[in-house]
From TrEMBL:
Natural source organism: Theileria equi strain WA
UniProt key word Signal: yes
The protein's name: Signal peptide-containing protein
Keyword field: Signal
Pfam families: FAINT (PF04385)
Residues of the signal peptide: 1-17
Keyword Signal: yes
């Protein structure tokens, strides 16, 4: 009776919010964690203690398999829907082993703990542009121009970098969806009572411009005409584009 209840529990276990599915394999005492693709770029999953997880899959492919112990924890990092890094923890009685993996161009590479930490830190830092912090020189090009009364700055990420978030300290200005990224940031005025920036967004190779205004460090998106009218008052005659 207890065995039947355990099997029923194992077969029906799922947490839809985190897109985790635990599915029994035919021998009843092994299972696999199938990691679906929620929008979060980083997700962690823990398997219940009464499951014996011996396989971890992502997008239908096995990324980890063990015949000794069970996978008790999985931490994944993805770029859009593409898996880039994974940390897998195997527990066998009192022994705990961590496996650190990198995925790129279809290749799977095992890393040391330090390599994994350094690469994942770089992986996430490069996706956020913070107006309040200095820009890392090798990540962006910076160019001055003056279409308005006040000089402006154009920040463009180098080819291998894509901006997925734009923030001003703790204040989020813009965050990408699954199919878009920011290709250019134009800072017209920053600091003081009013700030004005433009973002050029790539959406499946189609581009659109977004316009943002900050009043006392509270950012909001505004229509193009309102943006130029306010910018003209704040900085001088505007050359629209």
């Amino acid at each position: 009776m207890m065995l039947i209840l355990a099997l029923v529990s194992l077969r029906t276990l799922h947490t839809s919010g985190d897109h985790i599915v635990v599915d029994c394999s035919p021998d009843y005492f092994t299972a696999e964690i199938v990691v679906d693709d929620p929008k979060k770029p980083c997700s962690s999953f823990s398997s219940p203690i009464y499951t014996f997880v011996d396989r971890v899959k992502y997008d239908g492919k096995v990324i980890g398999e063990t015949s000794v112990g069970r996978f008790s924890y999985v931490n994944i990092h993805r770029f859009y829907t593409e898996l880039r890094f994974a940390e897998l923890r195997i527990e066998d009685e009192l022994v705990v082993k961590h496996i650190y993996l990198e995925f790129f161009d279809g290749e799977r590479k095992e890393l040391s703990e330090r390599e994994f930490w350094l690469k994942t830190q770089k992986f996430f830092v490069r996706f956020t542009f913070d107006l309040s912090d200095p820009v890392v020189p090798d990540m962006f090009t910076k160019k001055k121009y003056q279409p308005f009364g006040t000089p402006s700055l154009i920040f463009t990420p180098r080819r291998k970098y894509r901006i997925l978030r734009v923030v001003d300290g703790e204040n989020e200005i813009w965050e990408s969806s699954d199919t878009e990224y920011c290709t250019c940031i134009i800072v017209h005025i920053y600091g003081g009572i009013n700030s004005f920036i433009q973002l050029l967004i790539n959406i499946k190779e189609q581009y659109k411009a977004l316009y943002f205004e900050s009043k006392e460090y509270s950012w909001r998106e505004i229509p193009k005409d309102d943006f130029y009218n306010k910018l003209e008052i704040a900085s001088g005659p505007a050359a629209r584009f």
